[in-house]
Design goal:
Blueprint: H1 4-10, E1 12-18, H2 24-32, E2 37-39, H3 55-64, H4 68-87, H5 92-106, E3 107-113, H6 116-119, H7 124-136, H8 141-144, E4 147-152, H9 155-173, E5 182-186, H10 194-198, E6 204-210, H11 213-223, H12 233-250, E7 257-261, H13 262-267, H14 269-279, H15 292-296, H16 301-305, H17 308-317
Length: 324
């Protein structure tokens, strides 16, 4: 079994983040096209960090927003999420083993309980069963083993164990990881809170990607994006301004973060690719199989596909964010 400190030394972790249709996929594909880089999950988004009920949620509810109920509920939800993730992997049993080890090491105290918020969620059969055991069998709450209450270990210990857990996932899912210099993660953090949401990787490098708002809106509109406003330009404009303000408020420059503009990357591909290579400690002339010329064709599509009315609104109200 590998010690997590050894795994960290053997392979570097590179995380690619975007705000949604930002062009971050092109940067990921560029890196995945280099022989020294291993795309985690073969390029699929690794979302058990940033999605609701994920690792970042677990951290927040145990350290930033701790309460007895928040801790217990967040652990329950996190377990369900990781088990769902594991069910889609070939080595699901090994992942569950590492999950159980992680839980054992980050939960300081656990005991059976039944807080009111959880009791209200019980279905009719469970409620009947609960009252029968309580009233007729005179069982105590702690004997019923319906819900696991938790108190976590200290924050430093949690972060160490979280890094170990992620390192073990790397080892299980990609047992050839030691053949590579870097491992690339797709959307494995929160674009609006980069430092905190990626801290579970330990020493890492993060590339964040932005894009012209006209192109983002066209992409939302074209793909009928499920999580984003693509059907009303006025809603999009307000959404974009608000999310950009949140990003600006939370963003802190750091040597482990590189900001790349999608359009600039494609227009100045030679220069930008060297910049990215240097950032992740590859030879600046390291080549990629990525076909940037194909992606280049997407740069100005919004200009020809959006209505003049929508274009004018975005150009007027989001003028400071325009890239072309």
């Amino acid at each position: 079994m590998y010690n997590y400190h050894n795994i960290q030394l053997m392979i570097k972790k590179i995380i690619i983040l975007g705000s949604g249709n930002s062009g971050s996929g092109a940067i990921f594909d560029y890196l995945a096209g280099q022989k020294k880089n291993l795309p985690f999950l073969n390029g699929n988004e690794f979302r058990i960090i940033q999605d609701p009920d994920g690792l970042y949620d677990l951290y927040i509810n145990n350290y930033t927003n701790f309460s007895i109920n928040n801790s217990a509920s967040s652990f329950e939800r996190f377990i369900k999420m990781v088990k769902m993730f594991a069910s889609k992997q070939k080595s699901s049993n090994l992942i569950i083993e590492k999950l159980e080890s992680f839980l054992k090491n980050v939960i300081l105290i656990n005991y059976s309980g039944l807080p009111e918020f959880y009791r209200k969620k019980l279905n009719l059969n469970l409620k009947i069963n609960f009252y029968l055991k309580r009233i007729i069998l005179k069982k105590k709450i702690n004997e019923l083993k319906i819900f696991n209450m938790t108190v976590p270990v200290n924050e430093k210990k949690f972060l160490e164990e979280a890094e170990l857990f992620l390192n073990n996932l790397i080892k299980i899912i990609h047992n050839d990881f030691s053949n590579y210099q870097n491992i690339i993660f797709n959307q494995s953090g929160n674009f609006w809170n980069i430092t905190d949401s990626t801290q579970f990787f330990g020493k890492r490098k993060v590339i964040i990607v932005d894009r012209d708002p006209r192109s983002i809106y066209w992409s939302f509109k074209r793909t009928d994006a499920f999580s984003y406003p693509g059907n009303d330009v006025d809603v999009f404009i307000e959404w974009y301004k608000k999310t950009q303000n949140i990003f600006k408020k939370n963003f802190k420059k750091n040597k482990f973060i590189l900001k790349i503009n999608y359009e600039n990357f494609l227009i100045n591909y030679s220069r930008q690719s060297k910049l990215i290579n240097k950032f992740i400690d590859l030879d600046i002339n390291e080549v990629s199989s990525f076909d940037y010329k194909n992606s280049y064709q997407n740069i100005y599509k919004a200009k020809h596909n959006l209505s003049k009315k929508d274009l004018k609104k975005i150009e007027k109200k989001l003028s400071k964010y325009l890239k072309w």
